[in-house]
Write a structure and sequence with these properties.
Order of helices and strands of chain B: HHHHHHHH
Number of helices of chain B: 8
Shape of chain B: globular
Radius of gyration of chain A: 18 Å
Oligomer: heterodimer
Number of helices of chain A: 7
Order of helices and strands of chain A: HHHHHHH
Strand content of chain B: under 5%
Distance between the termini of chain A: 35 Å
Strand content of chain A: under 5%
Helix content of chain B: over 70%
Largest interface: A-B, 108 and 98 residues
Distance between the termini of chain B: 35 Å
Radius of gyration of chain B: 21 Å
Chain lengths: 175, 212
């Protein structure tokens, strides 16, 4: 590990961003695969903690990338990972935005968008599965996940309260 | 232009959901921008507020700010810009800030909106990262985080449920099969995302094309 991790950080996240249909949450298994299994930047627990911190923080979900970058190489790593994840797609968005009006009603555009919806659904589902496997180590944690899922699905309760509840249950030593 | 933006006359009112039907072609042409032109500073502030008010996704807050509070876009224009943001690869709300900023202020507008959206959360998350690096090994903190992670995973599952309901409850079609295949490829088989995407996306798009 004499080599600087910065090029790898940039390269992985730039590549990842191009396939992340459905946002950062769809790419979590791939982030886990690279950060834990391939590059050994962090262990399972650290990855799960990183996910929790990113979810509890205000702002776009994509900041999980910033946290991974910081863990790997401090502030520079955070900057490089964030730029890798957001830079190329932002440039693309900027240029496509100018020509969008010309093809927004094109049939191929509608087919692409319709076709990508189920793909991103499957990917986000996979994220939930991989995270549950990584972080729910005992029956109580699994139970808390299940109860949170039902409450969040069936009610409009502010997610913040669910985080507070989860944190308190964790603190009490149940999880 | 007043005909295009019938709702603009109602500005002081709060019920802006009921807008007159708009002329889409005229509305989306660059020659007819919205009557309210945000300055760069306003753009930055709006996106900074949006980024700080949303937990788990900022888009509903972006809509509230841009359509309902600032009236920078009509509901239809917002839906258009959002559709483009979803269509593009990468994080949706990041794309949206660029698309929106570019429309109102060109390259500087895009940069300013993006900086507003990302800047404040980045500062907060970096402070949290420093605290975690320092105290992450504390037994107490790791227990709290374990509980929060379990809750966060539950929230993600709820989100999947909400996305899946309209797709799976519809009359039988190919979309659920694609979703299940993507799930198995990534979650069960552990394949890299680019392979799963490149294998499935063309099939799914072709299916959507022939289903039209």
């Amino acid at each position: 590990m004499n080599q600087s991790p910065l090029p790898a950080l940039f390269g992985y996240f730039a590549l990842l961003s191009l396939f992340a249909v459905g946002g950062a949450n769809a790419a979590i298994p791939e982030m886990h695969r690279i950060a834990v299994d391939v590059m050994h930047w962090m262990n399972d627990r650290q990855f799960a903690d990183t996910f929790a911190i990113a979810q509890v923080s205000p702002g776009p979900n994509v900041i999980i990338v910033t946290l991974i970058g910081y863990h790997v190489a401090g502030f520079l790593g955070a900057a490089v990972a964030t730029i890798g994840m957001c830079g190329p797609t932002c440039v693309l968005a900027f240029f496509v935005a100018r020509t969008w009006d010309r093809f927004k009603d094109a049939p191929w555009r509608i087919a692409i968008q319709g076709g990508l919806v189920p793909v991103s659904l499957g990917l986000i589902g996979a994220s939930a599965f991989v995270l549950a496997r990584t972080s729910d180590h005992n029956i109580y944690a699994g139970l808390l996940t299940a109860v949170t899922a039902v409450v969040a699905f069936a009610t409009r309760v502010n997610p913040l309260w669910l985080f507070v509840g989860g944190g308190l249950l964790g603190l009490s030593g149940v999880i | 232009m007043s005909g295009i933006r019938a709702g603009a006359d109602l500005r002081p009112g709060h019920l802006v959901l009921l807008r007159a039907p708009c002329n889409l072609a005229a509305m989306s042409s660059p020659a007819a921008p919205s009557p309210v032109q945000p300055s760069l500073l306003e753009l930055f502030r709006a996106f900074a507020i949006v980024s700080l008010s949303g937990f788990g996704g900022a888009l509903p807050w972006a809509r509230r700010m841009i359509v309902e509070r600032k009236r920078w876009m009509t509901a239809e224009e917002f839906a258009e810009a959002f559709a483009l943001s979803q269509f593009l690869p990468g994080p949706n709300v990041i794309n949206f800030s660029v698309v929106f900023g570019a429309r109102f202020g060109g390259a500087p507008g895009a940069a300013v909106a993006l900086a507003g959206l990302l800047g404040p959360p980045l500062i907060i998350v970096l402070v949290l990262a420093m605290l975690y690096a320092r105290f992450g090994d504390l037994e107490m903190l790791s227990r709290i985080l374990a509980g929060m992670t379990a809750a966060a995973v539950g929230l993600l599952i709820a989100m999947v449920g909400k996305m899946a309901a309209p797709i799976f409850l519809r009359r039988w079609n190919s979309a659920p099969l694609v979703a299940i295949a993507a799930f198995i490829g990534v979650a069960i088989l552990g394949w890299p995302l680019p392979y799963v995407f490149l294998g499935l996306a063309p099939i799914s798009i072709a299916l959507a094309w022939f289903k039209r």
